[in-house]
């Protein structure tokens, strides 16, 4: 039960694709020999990055920040102001502003971006780097990320225990924003851009000497912001910059904000975000034992250094690798301070011992939560945005709907008849399941089963004029043995069942309970598909269409699809694109994609969230286009539990 004979199939296929893309990228970089060619490459990189990171509706307007300084904390060499500002109307950002005493004119400044620590700006290591910079004479603004520190978006909502904080919350809103064609990473970056707006509004700050640093998730934001905002003059990302391929090969699932859509398909890697800001000074920081593999960091540094060399600025990029595991520890902090002092034209001042403040003392809000002082939580902003998008959505004809959905799902314009292998059949007391490994593309195989009492020829693919095909929620083998509806379908034999990529026999985890983890391999495959400019759901639909082609080629005239849960979505979309589908029966189907944007907590896997689909249609539009061929038995709500309607 729960065989995993093709467990690494999807991972290996993505590795193959990304290796090819990175080989082409390396050839392009290697061909650069003049400053003019370097500038042309840089302009290409900047255009791709901006197209990938900025949402479809463009950059939001810079609305009033409405900043408030809520408290001032005096220290021996600096003061700390606790600050609240609005990065979007009603969307509150909490921050600490470190201002050295005895400034002689405008001082250099640094924007500090926090990693995935629950305390955020008050976390030990982030207090330390902020204080070290202040002791060295820098004005520092360190701000809380969404759902960390004082910005828990689910505080008081009743969903905090289910959603969690930090990365779990980020991945929750990340998949909801995908339905709108938006990207959570830009929401994070926009907070950083508005934080910089506030920092540069302060009279204590010199706008010609502006640093940027952060660790882990803060290293991510440092990398993205460096490519997005030209006002930064120097940067030091820590424990992030390696390569997309390194993370993929090491099976490191990255957060929603760490996976920019379409960049991989365009041949862009981590190092290119640094190259986008060349020849401004950059220090790449890492750790010897980080899960952000030091090998990838060294390769990224070599790419950046070689590019800077083409611009005659090789002395402006440096690398420092500390002796620890993941984290912004003393050695890296001191390397960053020395680097910023050097490029800000200041003497190097290193504070060895840092006295930490209690978390509560650094709060900008009375109780340490922005929802207590009128913050509009991000899930409400998403719900409002989704309704606005739906109101503007045109009604499409069936043909136009197919065209638009084909684009969103990145379906190829044509398909070749797939080859299939015949693995050993499965024999049970009362049935035999013949199996067919249908090779849909590259190294991908969709596993088709034929369930019969006693098929006379399990090593041949025999079909009738009418065929019933079951598409499971999770696993054909498991559901045909355990699920009442699937067992009832199986009772009228023969029945075909299909595991598309990443389901059933090609489940990426060894244990079925891990599949629905918000940080699991299924989520990672979806994220890499998006970065490749593909749609993971679209590739699953493609697997289904290839199998339908095969069945039709073998003599089937009418195909009746039965889809459950995730399989219901596949069945509905597959039927739209294949003429041989005579009927579709859906069980445990979602009521709508819109419903997934109107609730704070949604457990449907990210693979079912098609980027930008709510700008084109919803599930009801697909049902209408299928013109009476769809029967819906019942629905699952946003948490994959039975609901009425």
What descriptors fit this protein?
single chain; 645 residues; alpha/beta; nine-stranded mixed beta sheet; 37% helix
Cross-sheet strand order for the largest sheet: 1-2-3-5-4-6-7-8-9
Radius of gyration: 27 Å
Largest sheet: 9 strands, mixed
Proportion of residues in helical segments: 25-40%
Task: Please explain how this structure is put together.
The model has no long low-confidence stretch (mean pLDDT 95). The strands form three sheets. Strands 1-2-3-5-4-6-7-8-9 form a nine-stranded mixed β-sheet, sandwiched between helices. Strands 10, 11, 12, 13, 14, 15, 16, 17 and 19 form a nine-stranded mixed β-sheet that branches. Strands 18-20-21 form a three-stranded mixed β-sheet. 37% of the residues lie in helices and 20% in strands. The chain has 645 residues and is α/β, with parallel strands linked by helices. It has 20 helices and 21 strands.
Q: Can you summarize this structure?
A:
The protein has 645 residues and is an alpha/beta fold. It contains 20 helices and 21 strands. 37% of the residues lie in helices and 20% in strands.
